[in-house]
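--- STAGE predict ---
source: upstream dedup step, 1 unique chain passed
mode: sequence only
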Amino acid sequence: MQAIIEADFRPVDLAFGEPNGATALCGAHKLEKCTDCGVDFVNLNRLSRLLVANPHLLCPPPPQALTQRLSVAINTTKEEGNTFFRSGQHEKAILRYTAAANYACQRPPWEAQQLMREELSTVLSNRSAAYWESRDMVSALADAEAVIQIKRPWSKGHFRKAKALVSLDRVEEAKEAIQLGLQFEPLNQVRVRVASAPRTRH
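--- STAGE serialize ---
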C-alpha cells in the first residue's frame, strides 16, 4: 500500500488561507479548487474548518455518532415548515425548509452520509412542493431535480419533477419523469394515474 501511495505522489505548490492558515489553496492562483493546477481542496478544507470550529474535538468520533443538536434543529425547522405549508403560508414554509436544508448540509463528513441524504432529500422535496404551490415552477423543478440527484430510487422526487414539468407545459418530459419514477415504485397508483394522462396544468 505504501508503494502505491508513493508511486501516486506528486508535489503540489501550496498556499494557506483563512481562518488562520487552516485552508489549503493552490500556490499559483490562491484557489481551493483550480483546474489549471489540477487540485481540489474543497472537501479537505471543509473538514479543516469543522475541526477549527470545534477545538475540543481531538479526533473525529466513530461514524455512528450523531450530532444530536443538529438533528433536533433539522427536524424542528422542517416541522415548522410543514406547519406553515399546511396552513397555506407557502413563502414562510419555503424559508423554514431552506433553513432545514442548510442545517442538513452542516453535518460533518465523519457522520453517515446516508443520514444527510435522507434529511436533505425530504426537506428539498417539501420545498419543491411549496414552490409549486407558490407557482414558482422553475424553483420547484430545480428542487425536484436535486432530490433525484440525492436519492434517485425515491419516486417522490420524480413525481415532484413531473408536476413542475406539467405546469411548465413540458408534458412529454413529465411523462418520462413519471415512467422513470415508476421503475422504482411500480405499484404507486397515484403515479400510475398521473403517468397515464398528464394533460393539463394542476
